[in-house]
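Review this:
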Amino acid sequence: MFLGIDLGTSELKVLLLDDRHRIVATLGEPLALQRPHPLWCEQHPADWWAATDRALCRLAQAQPAAMAAVQAVGLSGQMHGAVLLDAADGVLRPAILWNDGRSGAACAALEAAAPRLHAIAGNLAMPGFTAPKLLWVREHEPEVHARVRRVLLPKDWLRLQLCGESVSEMSDASGTLWLDVGRRAWSHELLAACGLGPGQMPRLVEGSEVSGRLMPGIAARWGLPAGVPVAGGGGDNAASAVGIGAVQPGQGFVSLGTSGVIFLVSDRFRPEPAAALHAFCHALPGVWHQMSVMLSAASTLRWATRLLGLPDEAALLDRVARLSPAQRAAAPIFLPYLGGERTPHNDPHAQGVLFGLGADHDAASVGWAVIEGVAFGLSDGWAAMGAATAGVTQLSLVGGGARSPLWAALIASALGVPLHTHEGGEAGAALGAARLAWLCAGGSPEAVCAAPPVSQRFEPDVDEQEALGRRYSRFRALYPALRGRFVR
């Protein structure tokens, strides 16, 4: 058995995988966000640990024999979050998360202080990344910044609790803006631009390497064997790619989670910062990837469901599915920028917009506008990838939103690329974390990283593409027209 632990934004998920690729068990614990000020988004690391303990105690009770057979543990998690620790590894303040937008001014300061940022880190300075968060803390909470002795990413803080060691890996470290992504090593130059040094960074390993071993008391509490190794693991998207077998150049996926991602594997470091694309290390040695990211994807459907007073997302999607083509064509246009946007706009101040509302619009019309707006946001990211998309003949679809065939078919038509879902694909990064654990226990990449069986295929619909094209033109015109009007 191999255990995957995925620290998401809204849920902590654990998964048991056997050596025949069978998911034996999976369960989750919810996590809450704190938004004390506009643009802020934080979580308390203690809540992550409490959720991990609850989940693994439940798993141990339900699957004692499987837990006793675990050979390795893998970690994945939300990227970019800043966990600030003092000299005794105490948490100095709530973690500032990936979707926190407060550090816009700090991004400009970082770009000025580190002229080679784009060449080294391969990315623009965006508020979501870790480095600008530290500059914000240095300016606004100097007493906290002065006490920082270690900066960890969310899943790596969990590793510290599990193993007692400060370790990160290449895919997650790529999202800090402190990594020399081409060399796969910390950049002293970029750290110095933030008033930090390499001694304040965790040790680096590859995602498939052993990073440490479970402390005896932790292993005993959860019914795990003593001395179980913990893999380096991966950032959530890199781990998801391992989970669905996207590990070779030209392979990739679309993720419909809290955020929306298009992920393409590359055999080399290919930075494209001008397009607001991300160029990161993969979770496996010698492989990189490009990624377009929109900050609000499946989360927009949750928002719309609450707004419209419906019991759940399925109820809203059921109404949407009954719309005629004419009703879809007459629906409002939705800009899905509920928390700012990354690719292609790099604008933390961008806001959500429902444009073209009329008295005849109902919940179904708004629901269609929302899922279509997310599809259009992904289309923007696909277009930004440019030449990297040449030769891509299909993409996997993962994340919670992948459960909707309606949404999957819509995105396939919007992108003009066939999509397919996989058995176990809803497990996402937790499955990838378990596979990385398998690799660190000695499994071969060819055997471990095979693509799971395909569940459903979605082909672009020519008629729908024509209708979407007309609406996409209106969508594309809205952001430039409104950019100067968003509240700052």
In short: Residues 2-244 form a domain with the Nucleotidyltransferase; domain 5 fold (CATH 3.30.420.40). The chain has two domains: 2-244, 294-421+456-485. The radius of gyration is 21 Å.
